[in-house]
Amino acid sequence: MTTHDPAPAAHGGTRFPLAGALAAAPSALAILTINFWIYYARVEFAALHPDYVAEQPPTISRGISDPAIGEPFAVWVSIASLFILLGVVQIAALYLRSASVLPAASARTASTVRRLAKVLVGAQCVATVGIVMLSVYRFPTHDLEHMVGSYIFFIAQAAAALLAGAACTLIARDAAAAEALAAHPYINPRISRWRGPFALGSALMALAFLTFFVLKDVDLGAWNGVVYQFYVLSEPALITYFLTVQALYLFEIACMARAGR
Model pTM? Predict the structure, then answer.
């Protein structure tokens, strides 16, 4: 490298400062959009149907059963889900580029991270199909299609979060990999140390949601109302958790773009 050569940009490099914001913006806006609609649907349904809410709290599925809520929900959430998929492709690119700069001592980590990144994109593609299905096909005319879409979305999205968490954990536990990545604007090993456990924690959130989903149909006497309330609250909370996992990559997506990599 001569004195006239530019130094390699690491995390936070600023060769193309505007590129970082442009690269992260679609995912950030999609995350905000979906979060808004999953809570707004319940609130607006409660305002429009107080008699129903007097009996039991509405789920997201029940909230979007009203066409006045469900139709714009389907449009905005379907569009946002495509940008979420784009964000996951960017995350996979982060992992693939990170794997390409790992030293020989981390060859096993690099190989596993490459496989996880590719499967991650596949899982998110399936989750996207699910969220579009559940948004477009709604109660009370398309019950079966809506439920199938819901199952596809939650299972595939949980898998995507776990794959991301596994990749983070592998990098965080490989000292040679962490040292090599410290000089590149790709996966940040310091963030990975706590993002990995957080992403893997989505399994516990999903398990809690599944537990409440099953128990809501069991005769528990006076506890049925409490269980149903937890079920209704855990549904949007789980989706928000999934979206938060993706949001934790926005900094690195921006850094990679800003460095012109």
Answer: 0.92
Is residue 213 situated within a structural domain?
yes
Within 8 A by CB and 6+ apart from 101, the residues are 180, 181, 184, 186
Structural domain of residue 241, as residue ranges? Answer: 17-258
Number of domains in the chain: 1
Whether 65 contacts 139, CB under 8 Å: yes
Contact criterion met (CB below 8 Å) for 86 and 178: no
In a domain, 196, yes or no: yes
Q: Residue 1 domain-assigned?
A: no
pLDDT in tens, the chain (261 residues): 444 444 444 555 556 678 999 999 999 999 999 999 999 999 999 999 999 999 999 999 999 999 999 999 999 999 999 999 999 999 999 999 999 999 999 999 999 999 999 999 999 999 999 999 999 999 999 999 999 999 999 999 999 999 999 999 999 999 999 999 999 999 999 999 999 999 999 999 999 999 999 999 999 998 999 999 999 999 999 999 999 999 999 999 999 999 876
Q: Is residue 8 part of a domain?
A: no
